[in-house]
Specification:
Helices cover about 45% and strands about 15% of the residues. With about 600 residues, the chain is an alpha/beta fold. It has a seven-stranded parallel β-sheet with strand order 3-4-2-5-6-1-7, with helices on both faces. A six-stranded parallel β-sheet has the order 8-13-12-9-11-10, sandwiched between helices. The longest helix is centred in the C-terminal third of the chain and has 21 residues, at about 520-540. The two termini are about 45 Å apart. About 40% of the residues are buried. It has four domains: about 1-195, Rossmann fold, CATH 3.40.50.300; about 205-395, Rossmann fold, CATH 3.40.50; about 400-505, Arc Repressor Mutant, subunit A (Orthogonal Bundle), CATH 1.10.10.10; about 520-595, DNA polymerase, domain 1 (Orthogonal Bundle), CATH 1.10.150.80. The chain binds adenosine-5'-diphosphate and zinc ion (ZN). Zinc ion binds next to helix 17 and helix 18.
């Protein structure tokens, strides 16, 4: 493995392998098949790129996503690796040139779309090349259980006979046990060894706050991410447009993205998101599939996703480069009402709805957890994590719980007295003794529960009602426009047979507990800006996205190490020989300027 280590350092500029990378590479070099399960950002690509590079011959990489394939090839070329791709975007003579390079033995890595690979003439040609491994990326596409089934992937089983003895790796970030079996069987992997790195994304800081004033909360969150790229997810096209417009007015480089925009607009916004390093994409979930931008520093949810799986997938787009990133979300009672109504009103059958409801409830429960958020997320995916991560809002500022039995009884009896016909807003008015028109109209100022809850603010009551719904003491009745009604569990609480502790909502100041590791001193922030500016101008000259020059993680390490010369710059993770030669001087110049202060 000395050759692997040398290439890792000299070409990629990394000091050591991560997680199971070294084992996977050794396994592949020994000619054996494997199934590689690694979370996004875990470093899957190195597992096949490196063995293809250190062995004689050519590595084939099957990938369904044309944009990603181009991206990877470009990144490899910048490292001085001889890589190319074959897909439908190339003209005939360009394709021919790539094939010639493969035949002559000049190529180290060839990325190829499955439909292209499966053409008999392509298979014929490649069989005459010395193929040293075949990597099948996004391998879950072979399974109809997953969400991205691709019929082309099913025919990839022919590779076993077409390239006998050539080791194959199937790689994916998302595969439950059933999909894993499917991958091994359908690709006809030979006695594959499974390398499972689990689901954890250690560089993502998780945080959830009650939704009070979402725009102001978002703005205050974005202050910590000035000049950074990120995604803000909203549920509807309208809120996407509103939010993007509003953020632009606040001076943020925000763009909208949803299925209602024209194909050209969507394409344009996507390209800007990739090419510029500070675009905040405000989007519905229509945005994200196949987005491989490594330097997305945050994913913010202004509305709740529909399940833990969706949340994990959407937030997983943050921090692929391994540098600190944040998954931030605000949610409130309104979201609970709206999402559960969407489930109720969906055309699916009752058993399907029950599953959806269960998934939503699990997510809501997770929003209100009082133990480590990461531990709770990973347990949901069947892992046994450490009880604390110190990189989530709960670990950083543990929530305070308070004895809420009496307050909850007041809330429940007021729901009962008002006839179980109203939403939280009206019930709270009655509890707080607000003489509003609606209160007078229904004569609710004469109820025994009128004004019994003046000790809490409206905001505090909202928190109580939200938690009562999430914990199953109140139900939202969609056939009655979101009215709250009592359920079986309410009775025990009303009678004082059960007690209840609720979580105190964090105050905005407290909830700005950002990931400690992302904090830069003011002076460093200026250095970061200058490093980014240097990166931008180099990228513009080559017409490549800034992250292709260096990832954020590499810039952050430059700030920590403050290299003074080429030799020291090589110590920085992500700086290899090719990039040192191309970019080294520009960055050393910026660093020298700052050390002179
Ligand atoms: P995946 O395909 O699993 O999402 P990538 O292969 O794109 O992940 O790698 C994620 C990030 O980690 C990239 O920025 C990559 O350069 C970096 N990386 C991979 N392996 C290492 C390593 N051994 N040391 C440092 N950084 C690494
Ligand atoms: Zn934690």
């Amino acid at each position: 493995m000395a050759a692997a280590q040398r290439t890792l350092v000299e070409t990629f500029g990394y000091a050591s392998f991560r997680g199971q990378q070294a084992d996977i590479i050794a396994h592949t070099c020994a000619g054996l098949d494997s199934l590689v399960l690694m979370p996004t950002g875990g470093g899957k690509s190195l597992c096949y790129q490196l063995p293809a590079m250190i062995q004689p011959g050519l590595g084939l990489v099957v990938s369904p996503l044309i944009a990603l394939m181009q991206d990877q090839v470009q990144a490899l070329n910048l490292l001085g690796v001889s890589a190319a791709y074959l897909n439908s975007t190339l003209a005939y003579d360009e394709q021919q040139a790539v094939i010639d390079r493969a035949r002559s033995g000049a190529l180290q890595l060839l990325y190829i779309a499955p439909e292209r690979l499966l053409q008999p003439s392509t298979l014929e040609t490649l069989r005459t090349c010395q193929v040293n491994l075949i990597a099948i990326d996004e391998a879950h596409c072979v399974s109809s259980w997953g969400h991205d089934f691709r019929a082309d992937y099913l025919s990839l089983d022919v590779l076993r006979a077409a390239f006998p003895g050539v080791p194959r790796l199937a790689l994916t970030a998302t595969a439950d046990p059933r999909t894993q079996e499917d991958i091994c069987a359908r690709l006809r992997l030979h006695k594959p060894k499974t390398f499972n790195s689990g689901f954890d994304r250690p560089n993502i800081f998780y945080s959830v706050q009650p939704k009070v004033n979402p725009k102001a909360q978002l703005m205050s969150f974005l202050k910590d991410y000035e000049g950074c790229a990120g995604i803000v997810y909203c549920l509807s096209r309208k809120s996407v447009n509103d939010t993007a417009h509003w953020l632009s007015q606040q001076g943020i480089n925000a763009l909208p993205y949803h299925a209602g925009l024209s194909a050209e607009e969507r394409q344009l916004h996507q390209v800007r998101f990739l090419k510029e390093d500070n675009v905040v994409m405000v989007a519905t979930i229509a945005f994200g599939m196949g987005i491989d931008k490594p330097d997305v520093r945050f994913v913010a949810h202004l509305d709740l996703p529909k399940s833990m799986e969706a949340y994990y997938q959407e937030t997983g787009r943050a921090g692929r480069d391994g540098a600190p990133a944040q998954a931030w979300m605000v949610y409130g009672l309104q979201d609970v009402v709206r999402l559960s109504r969407m489930v109720d009103e969906s055309p699916s059958d009752e058993s399907h709805k029950r599953v959806e409801r269960g998934k939503l409830e699990t997510l809501l429960g997770w929003c209100e957890v009082t133990t480590c958020r990461r531990a709770s997320l990973l347990s949901y995916f069947g892992e046994s994590p450490a009880p604390r991560c110190d990189n989530c809002d709960v670990c950083v500022s543990p929530p305070i719980t308070w004895e809420a039995t009496e307050i909850a009884q007041k809330a429940l009896s007021c729901v009962y007295r008002t006839g179980q016909r109203f939403g939280a807003g009206h019930v709270i008015d009655v509890l707080r003794g607000q003489l509003r028109d609606k209160v007078k109209q229904f004569d609710h100022h004469n109820l025994s529960t009128f004004g019994i809850g003046r000790s809490l603010s409206e905001q505090q009551w909202r928190s109580v009602f939200r938690q009562l719904v999430v914990r199953g003491y109140l139900q939202v009745d969609h056939s009655r426009y979101g009215a709250l009604r009592l359920v079986g569990a309410s009775r025990g609480l009303l009678r004082g047979e059960t007690t209840l502790a609720l979580r105190e909502d964090p105050t905005p100041a407290k909830s700005r507990s950002k990931p400690a590791r992302y904090k830069l001193e003011l002076e460093d922030e200026e250095l970061m800006e200058d490093l980014k500016a240097a990166r931008r101008s180099l990228a513009e000259k080559q017409d490549i996205p800034p992250y292709m020059v260096f990832h954020d993680a590499t810039l952050l390490e430059m700030i920590a190490i403050r290299p003074k010369n080429a030799e020291q710059l090589l110590e920085v993770s992500g700086v290899g020989q090719a990039k040192l030669a191309q970019y080294g001087d520009s960055f050393l110049e910026v660093l020298a300027k700052h050390s002179a202060f």
